[in-house]
Amino acid sequence: MGSETELKLGLLPEYSEEVATLPMLEQLACAPSQHRTLRNVYYDTPEQHLHRARVALRIRQDGDRYIQTLKSAGNGQAGLSVRNEWEWVRPEPSLDLALLTEHLPESLRDEVLLASLAPAFETNFERQLWWLGGEDDAGTWKVEVALDRGEIRAADKRMPLCELELELKAGPTDALFHLALEIARQLPVRVCDASKAQRGYQLAGIDAPLPEVTPRFDGDAVLSLVALVEACLKAWPVQLEAVIAGDEQALASLARTLDLLLVALESLPEVAEHCQVLISQYQRLRADVARAHDWRLLECMPKAWQQAQRDAGLKLMQGLQHKTLPGQLALATGELLWQIADDEATG
């Protein structure tokens, strides 16, 4: 068993060619870059038992090699996930069910259930790989950077795929955030908490509900506020993506989530004192959302005026795809939360 720690960043295909020109890929290179063509077939039962158990199973073709991989559910935020994975080299593109049993949740260890596994969807893409390394105050680190460009296929449906994966091979998690933030300063990326498998299921018709945030008090004010920041960070990038796709309901949810996030950040004393730049940047984003949303308070205005405001608001939100602010904000907040968790762990 291995543990995979990676941070995923989405970007528009039009910016993918700029990835190779990032100075860090040359300045921090510790091995020659590589190119691979990968075909991945994901398996599940007709009732999606693996998906419901938050498990992913695939066969990957990498050149003339076949690899069977089982992944558990990931934990993390701001595009970063930590999860367990098991890999086995196979002589052909078929499942060996005997390899799975001891690693599956108890609910999936059923011969009849496993016998019903069948292809559910595919993710096929070209992968460009770079290996970066260095040393800082926290020690030596090594990160694999992968640019994936291709598509996800489910029956006759297609979804374009264009993303960056930064996988930690050695060293502290901070190295991932530092590299990702440097990329986000130069390219308009977005954080992706959804894995390729999750997007494959969505394409196959299993939609994930739009996340909503409900504040809760768990007995400690500081811990409750930190939990609220975590919940908001999981929600607002997804809500923003839905807004960009034209979901007006998501716009109201996004406005509320950003309000909750700002209140939480400003109510945490050390954050309010030391993270004023982060807070002011969120205020900028909230102001853009207000411009796109708050005209709805003027229901008395003519329909033509309201439509003009709606169109202008959608254009404003869609323009955020081409700005670096959202990606930097999500990553900086994710790094802040990891630092808080690390401080709590070390006492």
Automatic annotation (TrEMBL):
Enzyme's top EC category: lyase
EC number: 4.6.1.1
Protein name, entry field: Adenylate cyclase
Entry's Gene Ontology molecular function annotations: adenylate cyclase activity; inorganic triphosphate phosphatase activity; metal ion binding
Keyword annotations from UniProtKB, A to Z: Lyase
PANTHER family: INORGANIC TRIPHOSPHATASE
Top-level taxonomic group: Bacteria
Domain CYTH positions: 2-207
Keyword Lyase: yes
InterPro entries (UniProt xref): CYTH-like_dom_sf, CYTH_domain, YgiF
Keyword field contains Membrane: no
PROSITE patterns the UniProt entry points to: CYTH
SMART domains registered for this protein in UniProt: CYTH
Pfam family of the protein (one): CYTH
